[in-house]
Amino acid sequence: MNVDLFDFDLPPERIALRPASPRDAARLLVVRGDGLDDRSVADLPDVLRAGDLLVFNDTRVIPAQLEGARGNARIGATLHKREGSRRWRAFVRNAKRLRDGDTIDFGAGVSATARDRADDGSWALDFAGDEPVELLLERAGRMPLPPYIAGKRAADARDADDYQTMFAAEPGAVAAPTAALHFTPALLERLAAAGVEHATLTLHVGAGTFLPVKAEDTADHKMHAEWGRIDQATADRLNAVRARGGRVIAVGTTSLRLIESAAGEDRIVRPFEGDTAIFITPGYRFRGVDGLMTNFHLPRSTLFMLVSALMGLERMQAAYAHAIERGYRFYSYGDGSLLLP
What we know:
Elements: E1 27-32, E2 35-40, H1 44-47, E3 53-57, E4 59-61, E5 65-70, E6 73-82, E7 87-93, E8 103-107, E9 110-115, E10 123-127, H2 133-140, H3 147-150, H4 159-162, E11 170-173, H5 185-193, E12 197-203, E13 226-230, H6 232-243, E14 248-251, H7 253-262, E15 272-276, E16 291-295, H8 302-311, H9 313-325, E17 336-340
Parallel strand pairs: 1-17, 3-12, 3-14, 4-11, 14-16
Antiparallel strand pairs: 1-2, 5-6, 6-7, 7-10, 8-9, 9-10, 12-13, 13-15, 16-17
Helix pairs in contact: 8-9
């Protein structure tokens, strides 16, 4: 499909630079086959049905943004995928000053050697020493805010909490599964009281999620792979919910992409562990989910293509036009939508 079909104009003032407070005070646009409904995230217990299951991503964002030097050259690195116990693939700023075998000093006793430049321009960074890389990043790294926020303000101490979900347990993401940022323990209790269950899986979100689609046709776009895992117990729960007539609703496109990677043509979700580079565009037949809660996405992005595949392009164009007109806040720290085909 032509990528221009997924373009739209977004006023820059609609981009949220801070999350709602409290988290569940964010607005929620409910998109169904029969129309649009302006609600808030706190209304979820009234909007969902008893027997539904929400699926959250329990990945934890690591301080994956690094600033360093090779000699007199300043080098910036954003880690996006682990490739070994001490090796991370990274997008590098000022990469033209870097050669294979060069060492980058990130300060605080943290350094890495650049290896194996890929076709997409990324480098493999081999971190020196014996300490776990996660400890090195805690010393030298900072929270990797999305570029549309980082371009307007610097990351600060608030982001260390604001950019983690309440489910964050498995370190490895360089971007938050942002739909889950809206949830609080109190909201989860109210959902449970309403008969809405929840489960977790793990997908370590990579920085590739922010990369624009540069191809003119979706068929020519290559997704970056991300590592994920669904264990047997979780797969069994998802299948049991649907077998008894409940709905499996992914919270975030990351959860949805992993469930769809694990689901077969028979609509059964099976255990999964490994990389996925699934790219969902209109025409895709969903096999593992019945709905999606997600934030509002960038024009021409793979994520806007995904929601258009779930609900239909015209319906999502209308929903986004409604959201812009009604003052909804967009992107990672913005408001949410609940998409129910």
